[in-house]
């Protein structure tokens, strides 16, 4: 099985999605903390009026370029 590469949700750097990367899906502890800070300051919000759909549980396609 090949390596799975994903983009860091914060800086978009390509990183290997693997159990050895303790920060996954982030590239670093810094990006992981930035994401946490966005949640804690309510920069990220979830729309409470948006009902959960069956398609919400679909695994996203990974770009392996």
Automatic annotation (TrEMBL):
Binding of Zn(2+), residues: 8, 11, 27, 31
Q: List the cofactors.
A: Zn(2+)
Which GO terms label this protein's molecular function in UniProt? DNA topoisomerase type II (double strand cut, ATP-hydrolyzing) inhibitor activity; zinc ion binding
Q: Which GO terms describe its biological process?
A: regulation of DNA-templated transcription
The record ties this protein, via InterPro entries, to: DNA_gyrase_inhibitor_YacG, Znf_NHR/GATA
Keywords, sorted A to Z: Metal-binding, Zinc
Which note does the record give on the cofactor?
Binds 1 zinc ion.
Q: What does this protein do?
A: Inhibits all the catalytic activities of DNA gyrase by preventing its interaction with DNA. Acts by binding directly to the C-terminal domain of GyrB, which probably disrupts DNA binding by the gyrase.
User: Its family?
Assistant: Belongs to the DNA gyrase inhibitor YacG family.
Q: Write down the PANTHER family for this protein, in alphabetical order.
A: DNA GYRASE INHIBITOR YACG
Q: How does it assemble?
A: Interacts with GyrB.
Protein name as catalogued: DNA gyrase inhibitor YacG
Protein species of origin? Candidatus Ichthyocystis hellenicum
